[in-house]
Amino acid sequence: MLAPDSLILAVETSCDDTSAALLRGERQLLGHVIATQDMHGGFGGVVPEIASRAQLRVIDAIVEQALAQADVRLDDVTAFAVTSGPGLIGSLLVGLNWVKAAAYALGRPFLGIHHMEAHLFATALEDEGAQPPFVALLVSGGHTLLLFAEQWGRYQLLGQTRDDAAGEAFDKVARLLGLGYPGGPAIERMAREGEPERQPFSVPMVGAGQKPQDEDYFDMSFSGLKTAVLTRVRELEAEGRLSEAIADLAAGFQRAAIDQLVEKTLRAVTESGCGRVVLGGGVARNGTLAESVRRRLPPGGQLFVPSPRLATDNAAMVARAAYFRLGCGERSGLDLNAQASLAIPGIV
Ligand code: KG4
Ligand code: ZN
After folding, report:
1. Longest dimension (CA), the chain
2. DSSP code string of 192-221
3. From its phi and psi, is residue 217 left (phi > 0), alpha (psi between -120 and 50) or beta?
4. Helix, strand, coil % over all residues of the chain, rounded to 5
5. Does 281 sit in the ligand 1 pocket, CB within 6 Å?
6. Which tens digit of pLDDT belongs to each residue from 197-209?
7. What angle do CA 15, 19, 24 make, to 5 degrees?
């Protein structure tokens, strides 16, 4: 269905980043450009209208740069791929319409890709061994999913967040602590200067009495933890001790958030009997998360973590996911629309 030397041009604009990638075959990344936006910091989060307008301005140039890096012409492209959801609707439409227009003009097929399935494929670009079966923890700014991937395209959804996403919790707590946006890297940096024991928070959703058949056994929650940090911040503020406690608060929050993710992931390892774990999404950049999972893996277990560039939003992972699905014969029609929320495909 897809030649082994096919050339896929993928575009990703689901949130504030604008990215284009050229993938030859399964893993040869010929060109990859990611433009991040830095104008949202002052607002404490991404402003959708500003993000999509900026993406519209740069999309042509980003694709041009990726083509130049890959030393190929648009006409050489075998098929196009684009994130069609979930994400910010205005942003998604920028990428989707660009790809539709190019595919139509050149008479080539194109395929819409689910953003979180793309994150699932990121490690496969870098490590030939990152193939199912594996347990996957996908942790981004909008989603937190715990999956068992039986094979590509066949996933058991074990658990997900019941409220905020993991990355969203890092962003909100960073804002509370005055650390700026995006919050994940800021919290991780600040946490290195602090002691989690000095500002401890209880780990959500990990009651000792929980059993595998319980509905919440694999589920996660972050909003209670965020509120606990807020309450502590107010107390410390009233006592005039907040500024000296920022690093300890960051460390305490990070430990509780990560302990929850690690505990749930290890439950999935135990229950599935599969010690191979894949991390994906922006929060997978967190070194403490990766280290904590690695420490607790059973003997013979293996952890696959994307490099920082492939953990956060990028078009290379979209191209890799498309390589799989285009290879299965899937194609999108020009009536494909962007979707703000969309269930991950292949859930069994
Ligand atoms: O996957 P991603 O780039 O975009 C979405 O699909 O949402 O993830 C972005 C999220 C943000 O919430 C950001 O704060 C978080 O990933 N993040 C981190 C780290 N780097 C990025 N969270 C924790 N630790 C980090 N080092
Ligand atoms: Zn993402």
Report:
1. 67
2. TTS-GGGS--PPTT--TT--TTSTTSS-B-
3. alpha
4. 45, 20, 35
5. yes
6. 999 999 998 988 8
7. 135
CA of 240 to the centre of ligand 2 (A): 38
DSSP 78-93: SEEEEEEESS-HHHHH
212-218: Cβ within 8 A, 24+ apart: 212/267, 212/271, 216/162, 217/159, 217/267, 218/146, 218/158, 218/159, 218/264, 218/267, 218/268
* Confidence check: pLDDT of 39 > 90: no
pLDDT of residue 89: 98
Q: Is the CB of 136 under 6 A from ligand 1?
A: no
CA distance linking residue 81 with residue 21, whole number of Å: 10
- Would you give the distance in Å from CA 77 to the centre of its chain? 26
- Distance from the CA of 105 to the center of ligand 2, in angstroms? 29
pTM, two decimal places: 0.97
Residue 24's identity, in one-letter code, is R
